[in-house]
């Protein structure tokens, strides 16, 4: 039962779906992952939906901002920050951009939205009452990955801003001879790799499932679109990539570790 009380700085500690149809998305992911959805009224009249598994928070589903009208839904990855304001202050000198200055998201936590020098967007999260409590088991996030055309520049940025270390590993994949990982407090917490040619730099979220084929079939029946069919990655597991009914990209992985 992988339950987390806290996260070392730089570790992904929350994922959030921004979508034009919150309740439709809640129905989709609730059916796919077995989440129980809790609607939390906000002071501005909206609601913030938290997907729970066995009573523990897993992910958020939020409304689409007016300036993003017409934009496909997307999953946003949040990285733990011990002090959001201090971390955000290091973004510009390290070559990145602070797109949304630090602010309090109601009483849930303090956040900022940044873009790294290679163009990938990610958020910082200093939690108060909300974080991913349950992870690394079926129906929860198990891995995050930065896809960037300049791995060296990206790893330097996240080292300067969040103190993450990185290491490059040889892998037995013909098209990708090496794979880079981020580590926080000595623990591997995310991967870094070049994106597909047509994909912009971005962060991916992987959700663990018991059986990839069954989950893909269920997701398609619920309105998802299969982008990358299920395939095996040696020593890692079996995975697939889909978009949900409103266009948000997400990955599934049936971990080789079980």
UniProtKB/TrEMBL annotation:
CDD domains: SgaA_N_like. Residues 11-127, 140-255 form the VOC domain. It comes from the Bacteria. This is VOC family protein. The lineage of its organism: Bacteria, Bacillati, Actinomycetota, Actinomycetes, Propionibacteriales.
């Amino acid at each position: 039962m992988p339950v987390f009380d806290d996260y070392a700085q730089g570790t992904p500690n929350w994922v959030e779906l921004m979508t034009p149809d919150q309740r439709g998305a809640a129905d989709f992911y609730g059916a796919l992952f077995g989440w129980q959805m809790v609607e939390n009224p906000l002071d501005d009249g909206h609601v913030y939906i938290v997907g729970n598994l066995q009573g523990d928070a897993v992910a958020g589903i939020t409304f689409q901002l007016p300036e993003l009208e017409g934009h496909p839904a997307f999953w946003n990855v949040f990285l733990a920050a011990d002090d959001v304001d201090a971390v955000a202050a290091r973004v510009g000198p390290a070559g990145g951009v602070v797109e949304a200055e630090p602010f309090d998201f109601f009483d849930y936590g303090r956040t900022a939205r940044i873009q790294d020098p290679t163009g990938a967007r990610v958020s910082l999260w200093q939690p108060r009452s909300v974080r991913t409590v349950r992870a690394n088991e079926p129906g929860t996030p198990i891995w995050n990955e930065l896809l960037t055309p300049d791995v060296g520049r990206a790893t330097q940025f996240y080292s300067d801003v969040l103190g993450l270390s990185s290491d490059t590993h040889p892998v037995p994949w013909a098209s990708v001879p090496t794979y880079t990982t981020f580590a926080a407090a000595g623990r591997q917490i995310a991967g870094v790799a070049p994106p597909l040619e047509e994909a912009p730099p971005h962060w991916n979220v992987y959700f663990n499932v018991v059986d990839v084929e069954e989950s893909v079939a269920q997701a398609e029946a619920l309105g998802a679109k299969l982008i990358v069919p299920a395939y095996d990655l040696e020593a890692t597991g079996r995975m697939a990539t889909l978009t949900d009914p409103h266009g948000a990209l997400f990955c599934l992985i049936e971990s080789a570790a079980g």
